[in-house]
Amino acid sequence: MKGMTEAERRGLEARIAESPDLFEISRCSLGMADAVKPGYVLTAVPRSPRMPEGSATFCADQTVVVVQLRGGTSVDGLKIGQPVQ
Predict the structure, then answer these.
(1) What is the percent of the chain where pLDDT is above 70?
(2) What 3-state class would DSSP assign to 27?
(3) Residue 44 CB neighbours (<10 A)
């Protein structure tokens, strides 16, 4: 959140906290000397109890292709998800 004012940071944090989705960044290896392949995975998973049946999970990585899947887990997203148009 570099370059944001304190008010912008608080506003962003409030929007994330109120979002119907949980966001996670994992496998962050950009710039790490021991990384086999630099990259990351970003997931957005519907929060319980607001998660209606058939809700989509969204995933993206350093390729910036966003995929979605229904009925799977975020672990499966990049493998079997369908690209979002």
Answers:
(1) 74
(2) coil
(3) 20
Q: In Å, how far are 33, 34, 59, 80 from 77, measured between CA atoms?
A: 27, 25, 6, 6
Amino acid identity for residue 74 in this structure:
S
How large is the average pLDDT for residues 8-37? 76
Q: Bigger pLDDT: 38 or 83?
A: 83
- pTM for the whole thing? 0.64
Under 8 Å CB-to-CB from 72, ≥6 apart: which residues? 57, 80, 81
Alpha-carbon span 77 to 81, nearest angstrom? 5
Q: What is the pLDDT of residue 31?
A: 52
Alpha helices in the chain (DSSP H): 6-18, 77-80
Task: Quickly tell me which residue has 């998660």 as its tokens.
Answer: 51
Q: Are 59 and 81 in contact (CB under 8 A)?
A: yes
